[in-house]
Every structure is written in structure tokens, then in C-alpha cells.
User: Fold this.
Amino acid sequence: MSGIKRKNNLTFLEKIYIPEIVRGLKLTLQNMFRPNVTLEYPEKKFTPPDSYRGRPVLVKDINGLERCVACGLCARVCPPLAIEVQAGETGTEKERFPEKFEINMLRCIFCGFCEEVCPEEAIVMSKDYELVFSNRNDAIFGKDKLLVPIENLKPRLEFLRKFK
Amino acid sequence: MNIWEIIIITLIKIAVIVTVLLLAVSYAVYFERKISAWAQNRIGPNRVGWKGALQPFADVFKLLLKEDIVPEASNKPLHALAPFIALFVAFSTYAVIPFGPEVNIFGYKVQLVVADINIGILYILALTSLSVYGITFAGWSSGSKYSLLGGIRSSAQMISYEVSMGFSVGGVVLLASSLSPVKIVEAQHGWMWNAFLQPVGFITFLVSSFAETNRLPFDLPEAEPELVGGYHTEYSSMKFAGFFLAEYANMIISSALITTLYLGGWQNPIVDIFNIQGTLAVFLQVGAFLLKVAFLLFFFIWVRWSIPRFRYDQLMNIGWKVMFPLALFNLIWVAVLIMVFKI
Assistant:
């Protein structure tokens, strides 16, 4: 501890330590009557704030289609190479859509770069933190698991517009 | 009373005390965990039974089902013997501690103590000194350097603190002019508790008993960060549980001993003030004893979760340079009390 300067001449009361011991005992006794901070997890669940970076998901717009235009920026920026995108053509005005969009959840490090880099606000981090799989194939999330309706992601999108 | 009646009454007393003590030990473990949780704003065990009340039994069954690992380099007979020495010493000390006055049960006059021997204090001091063997054997026979260091530390610590402990008890013996715990309790009637008459002796005895039971400010024999687990690093399964139980039994014994020597044992001032007679008085007095022991147990646990561990040289300094002179001073103080104030 380089920052702390110790006093060399302790007074008699400081030398016998008893007042300090009593102070310590008082502190722990006070703590015994304070409310607990434990959350009994499986019964009660933690609701994360909007800034929380949970499982990345694809935004499903009001018309029922994904917002993603398969530009591949997220796959490009992803540090652990967890995202794989294959683009396809549509006949509509949007022109491109992801034929295949997979995130390997064993690789994902929840950095949020994909969300930051996305020009269409199409991939965002959700509040979902309960990620359990029993084998490696289940850990690769395809479009079926990734698409989440936009109503469920409103708070996060608003948060992004404010702070991004 | 013929010899058979005495034997049967004593056996009943032993059975009651061992049952109560074992239950108290398991619940001391439970409350240790609960109080530590409260002190850290946690909840503590609350899954097994009502508010986790069956947790101690779950712990014991878990330990029973574990594999018993005996290290290759160990001295096997001593390795197996050590936890039993610790347990034996912890439980047999209780024989001479009185937990109530003389009562009439179905026409028999029963002293509420297993063995009312006239040198009970010497018996207690002798047995508590023996408890160091359990720990030292455990440390030495494990064939591990961590265990050995723990065992050596413990023997040095216990020998140092035994001295101040013995001198503090000297003051109590002087005041009661008897070595029998029953007489010592009877000498502290009303508010004449030794804790008030010789506060310095009370503090030195309290601190020494913390050191004797290897509880936290002095738990160097098992200092987790430095010695892994100290003397019980190489123990597992029921042998580990033996040490664990012995530690908590020692805590209860120490609390009972402090109560007997300094806090008036089963003396309840309310009984003396209102002059209560008969069964109610006995219940109040035994209740007072249990309450005092429970408070001291809480104090032991409370201190453990408040005060950090001493360094080894600090421990020896306090033992020899502070506690020993204070205990001697207390002895002189008691002698002055007797000579000048004729107590």
C-alpha cells in the first residue's frame, strides 16, 4: 500500500486496539439488521437495465420481415467470428435479405460491436441472459431463434438512439 | 442412594448432555453460517427445511457419503487417531461443568452436573491442554508441509495462551477458595459475578479461550490463505467432520466455561431478588445458564466475522507481553480485594 501513510506515534487508546475492535463489532452488528441484497435467482429474476448487453437478436419489423440487409458488417467486426451471414436477393424495394444468419453462442462475447456497427439498427443486444444448451449444435442460433418482434426491443432501440 | 442408583442417574445425565451437546454443535454450525450471512447482507442457508433448519443434517450426510482419502505419505494409525482425540477432549471436558443447582427429581437429590469432583478446574485445564495433541498429531501424521506448519503453530499458540489462561483462573479460584466448578458458581450468587469483580481476568480469559479454540482472530493453525486448510488439509469425509465438530464443541465448552467461571454459571439474579422457590426457580436458573452460553456463542461467531486474523509474531507478542502480565496483575488485584475488602 504505497498511498497510505502510517502514523508512527499511536496514542495509548490506539495501541490497545479495543476502541477499534468495538467499532468493527458495531459495524457488523449494524449490518446484521440491514436488508439483504441476495436475489433468490430461479424464483425471482433480475430485470436488467436498458444498457444491458444480453443475447444479440435480429429485429423483426412491423411488416414481419427482418430489417437486416445482409451487408455483412457485423460478421466483419465480430471479434470472435461468431456471426455468419449469407445474402440473398428479394424482388422488393429492400433488394437484399439474409438467406442464412447464424450466431454461434459459444463464441459470442457480448461485446455489442455488431449492434454498434449495424447501419439499419437490425441487430441489437436483448435483455435475455438465460442461455443454456445441451450440445454444440444447439448453440448455433439460426434466424428462427434470432428474430424477435420489434415491440419487445423498443426500450433498447430508444436507449441506442439516445446514447449511441 | 445405593451404587446402582448413582450409576443410572449418572448415565441418564451423560445421555442428556451428549444429546444436547451434539444438537447444539450442529446448530452452532448452522448459526455460524446464518450469522456470517447476515453480517454480509446475505440470506444464508434457507433451502433444507424451514429457513434451512435441517441444513446441519444435510451437511453431515454429505460428509458421510464422501470418499475418505488417506494420503500415501501419512502415518496411518496417527492420522486416524487424531480426529478422535480432538472429539474426545472436546466432549469429555463437559463432565464437570454445572448447568443447574441441586434439584429434587422423584425424591432423588440430583446435582445438575455429571461429575461434581473437587478439582474440576484442574481437570478442565488438563483436558484443554490435551486437545493440542489432536491438532499436532493431525498436522504431523498427514505428511504434508501445510498440515505440519498448522500443527506446529497450533502447539506454540496453545502453550503460550495456556499460561495466561491458567493465571486468570487463579484469580477465580482465589475468590471462591475452591477448585470445584460447583463451589465457584455458588460463590457468585446474585450479582457477585467474577466478570464484575475482576474484569481484567475476564478479558484475559476470554481472549485466551479464543486462542485455545482456534477461533478467528487467532485461527493461525488453519489460516486458509496461507496454509490451505492448516492441520486438516489432508483430511476428508467423516474424519474432517470430526475436526469440524470438535471445533464447534470446543467453542461451546469455552462458552460454558466462561459462563461458569466469570458470568455466574446458572445463577439468575431474578431468582434471588424475587426469592422464587421450587421448580420455576430451577427452570429460570438452567435457562439463565443456556442464555449466557448462547450469547457467548453468538459473541464468538460475531467476532469471527468482524476482526481480521493476527500475524504470527503479533500473536506471540500479545500472548506473552500483554496477556500474561495482565493475568498476573489480575491475580494481585484479586489478592488485594480479598485482603482489603474482605470479599
